[in-house]
From TrEMBL:
Pathway recorded for this protein: Isoprenoid biosynthesis; isopentenyl diphosphate biosynthesis via DXP pathway; isopentenyl diphosphate from 1-deoxy-D-xylulose 5-phosphate: step 3/6
This protein's name: 4-diphosphocytidyl-2-C-methyl-D-erythritol kinase
Enzymatic class: transferase
High-level lineage: Bacteria, Bacillati, Actinomycetota, Actinomycetes, Propionibacteriales
Residue intervals of the GHMP kinase N-terminal domain: 70-147
Active site, UniProt feature: 10, 140
Species for this entry: Nocardioides panzhihuensis
GO biological process per UniProt: isopentenyl diphosphate biosynthetic process, methylerythritol 4-phosphate pathway; terpenoid biosynthetic process
UniProt GO molecular function: 4-(cytidine 5'-diphospho)-2-C-methyl-D-erythritol kinase activity; ATP binding
Annotated keywords: ATP-binding, Isoprene biosynthesis, Kinase, Nucleotide-binding, Transferase
HAMAP family: IspE
Xref: InterPro entries: GHMP_kinase_C_dom, GHMP_kinase_C_sf, GHMP_kinase_N_dom, IspE, Ribosomal_Su5_D2-typ_SF, Ribsml_uS5_D2-typ_fold_subgr
Presence of the UniProt keyword Metal-binding in the record: no
Domain GHMP kinase C-terminal: start-end pairs: 208-282
Reported function: Catalyzes the phosphorylation of the position 2 hydroxy group of 4-diphosphocytidyl-2C-methyl-D-erythritol.
């Protein structure tokens, strides 16, 4: 028997970053949205851990490990340890989420693995326990379980759903060269240092979501990692300018980048903006709706 679970990419509508803590982490106040780019994870019975990879066009797999350092193996081991069982599994990952793109693809795979193995091994882990295991794997993993639109606090691991009445459309423009998340945080520390205030989720963003108004959302998007990421990668400024010229309502870096997200009015507008970006010779362009569901079983 195999079980396939689908998990979505995340985009931070708001990413507020606070001063680095003594343990090295930065406190976050973020609003996540799950958007329609997906990885599928298929888990099957096996005596030892095995990871195999495949991907949609234009998604490079070179950086993704197939050994025990793949986050899916860490997720599987954490779930087995939680239940005190000694089991392994084969995990096939089909990636539709660009790697090292600031879209939390690895976190999506980890969340999908928890859901798949919970079902494969008939564990019936409570939601609360799954979220706790997810939070120990990485700050974006709990949100990948929950999906839709949610506020994240702490290191991102405390997730609270928020009212979102929008049927949003995004165009995601990827970049062939990844951007290291720790390097972007280091650049953030250098740029703003310890002088930065405790981050907060702005009320006007929550209002824009509740109203489902794309014009209001365009004005409320923000990402504290954008300036440091652009300092490391000045070439991305051209993608921002091209997105604006293509008619996007707003253009923002996804997480620590380098993927750039463009807010559109509706599906037809997203197709138009995506077409305009392709005409400018960008070859990693995806139109994606949001919000979409968290990790869920698609076949078993
Ligand atoms: P984040 O924004 O959470 O830092 P990201 O979207 O920028 O994530 P990911 O695609 O999650 O980046 O991958 C970051 C790194 O994690 C990769 O470069 C790779 O070395 C490692 N990794 C481990 N397991 C996976 C996985 N299943 N999928 C992708 N990357 C993985």
């Amino acid at each position: 028997m195999t079980i396939t679970v689908r998990a979505a990419a995340k985009f931070n509508l708001h990413l507020g970053v606070g001063p680095v803590r003594e343990d090295g982490f930065h406190p976050l106040a973020t609003v996540y949205q799950a958007i329609g780019l997906y990885d599928d994870v298929t888990a099957g019975e096996a005596d030892g851990w095995q990871v195999t990879l495949s991907a949609e066009d234009h998604i490079a797999l070179a950086e993704v490990p197939t050994g025990d350092d793949n986050i899916v193996v860490r997720a599987g081991k954490a779930l087995a340890a939680h239940h005190g069982i000694d089991r392994a599994a084969s995990i096939e990952i089909h990636k539709g989420i660009p790697v090292a793109g600031g879209l939390a693809g690895g976190s999506a795979d980890a969340a999908a693995t928890l859901v798949a193995l919970d079902r494969l091994w008939s564990l019936e882990t409570s939601d609360e326990d799954l979220l706790a295991i997810a939070g120990r794997l990485g700050s974006d993993v709990p949100f990948a379980l929950v999906g839709a639109t949610a506020v994240g606090g702490g290191r991102g691991e405390i997730v609270e759903p928020v009212a979102d009445n929008g049927a949003w459309w995004w165009v995601a423009v990827g970049n062939e060269q990844g951007l290291s998340t720790p390097a972007v945080y280091r650049a953030f520390d250098e740029l703003v240092g310890a002088g930065v205030a405790e981050p907060q989720v702005p009320e006007r963003l929550l209002m824009a979501l509740e109203k489902g108004d794309a014009g209001l959302l365009a004005e409320a998007l923000a990402n504290d990692l954008q300036a440091p990421a652009l300092a490391l990668r000045p070439d991305l400024a051209q993608t921002f300018a091209d997105g604006e010229e293509a008619g996007a309502l707003a253009v923002q870096l996804s997480g620590s980048g380098p993927t750039v997200l463009m807010l559109c009015r509706d599906a037809a507008h997203a197709r138009e903006v995506a077409g305009a970006m392709q005409a400018k010779a960008y070859d990693r362009v995806w139109a994606a709706p949001g919000p979409v569901a968290g990790a869920h079983v698609v076949t078993y």
